[in-house]
Design goal:
Layout: H1 2-50, H2 61-74, H3 80-92, H4 105-111, H5 117-130, H6 134-142, H7 145-150, H8 155-164, E1 179-180, H9 194-203, H10 205-212, E2 216-227, E3 230-240, E4 245-255, H11 258-275, E5 284-291, H12 294-301, E6 307-314, H13 320-332
Helix pairs in contact: 1-3, 4-6, 5-8, 9-10
Length: 333
């Protein structure tokens, strides 16, 4: 009877797994058909427009008429905004084969709010690669992720970013300029301590991992190291699955100093000798501060063989106009 019960339990488990997989495939197929259908509707609107019947702009009466008539005939789902983004879906992806079958209409609805084709392409690729939920996608777009990554590269890098998404191939690819930590809800002029910053990051670890990017696995906070009879503590310790290395993060409330760089270099030497195992690449250190002096950084890091990266963070969302102007200047070079 015991053996029969075990076999029966396996049967239930097997059927359950099959049902879950089938439902996931069915949902994905429904989403794919819905996106394709909305693309076709967008094509119909554009073709109607091109025949000179009426200019299909967001403020035109065409969307009002279509919304009213389609809603009366077929029910919900045909609001003015939905119809506008169906049209934009077709204009942005005129080859329907380039549509992702892994993204829902809700993903595309948010992505199509981007101002440029470069942004639309990037957020489409990145949403698919990192399996962002719609909520995660909205947060990344609101934090201007594309612009922050683009401004850390050159014109060719921006175009590659748009067509291929963000690939982490070297330690420098871990950085954003700046890291945005608005989810901590710390007022801009509030006099917080480094310990409070760390505490809030840990309390919002899921959001922090989203901001850090793909590949980070959290290991520990206040990681203790004993070196030469003295004890040191690292604020945050991660392992990066793609780079196959430890990533050490130290938090600084104010400006990054040359002594901070020297201390991080000490930590990295310790990890190379004491913590790294076979198959691990050399560890990477990230000093995360509110300010950094570029000249000081250049002199302080010029003779260091370890990979010490310095990055800024800010506690509020970036200024969209400033980032767009900076990116436009870069693309005009």
């Amino acid at each position: 009877m015991k053996l029969q019960q075990q076999e029966y339990n396996k049967l239930i488990q097997g059927i359950g797994q099959l049902l879950i997989a089938g439902r996931e495939r069915a949902a994905q197929e429904v989403n794919s058909i819905l996106v394709q259908t909305y693309w076709e509707i967008g094509r119909y609107i554009v073709e109607f427009e091109q025949r000179g019947k009426e200019k299909a702009e967001y403020g035109s009466q065409l969307f009002d008429r279509l919304s009213t008539d389609l809603t009366q005939a077929y029910g919900k789902g045909f609001g003015r905004s939905n119809l506008f983004y169906m049209r934009k879906l077709y204009l942005s992806f005129q080859n329907s084969g380039t549509l992702s079958h892994k993204l829902t209409w809700s993903h595309y609805y948010e992505i199509l709010k981007a101002d440029s084709d470069l942004e639309i392409s990037f957020y489409t690729k990145q949403s698919e690669k990192e399996k962002w939920s719609v909520r995660e996608l909205k947060r990344q777009m609101k934090s201007m992720l594309f612009h922050r990554l683009a401004l850390s590269t050159d014109k060719e890098g921006v175009l590659k970013l748009a067509t291929e998404g963000h690939e982490v191939q070297q330690p420098e690819d871990l950085l954003k300029d700046p890291f945005v930590l608005e989810f901590l809800n710390i007022p801009e002029k509030y006099q917080y301590l480094e310990g409070e910053l760390e505490e809030r990051l840990i309390s919002n670890l899921q959001q922090f991992l989203l901001e850090l990017g793909k590949g980070f696995a959290f290991i520990a906070r206040q990681y203790r190291m004993s070196i030469g009879g003295k004890h040191f503590r690292l604020d945050l310790l991660f392992y990066h699955r793609i780079l196959k290395c430890f990533v050490l993060i130290d938090l600084k409330r104010g400006e990054l100093d040359h002594s901070d760089i020297g201390q991080m270099n000490l930590y990295l030497n310790y990890f190379k000798k004491e913590e790294a195992t076979e198959g691990d690449n050399e560890p990477v250190g990230i000093l995360l501060g509110a300010y950094k002096d570029h000249i000081l950084v250049e002199y302080a890091t010029s003779s260091i063989t370890n990979k010490v990266l310095l990055a800024k963070y800010q506690l509020y969302l970036p200024n969209k106009a400033q980032l767009e102007n900076a990116l436009n200047k870069l693309l005009d070079i």
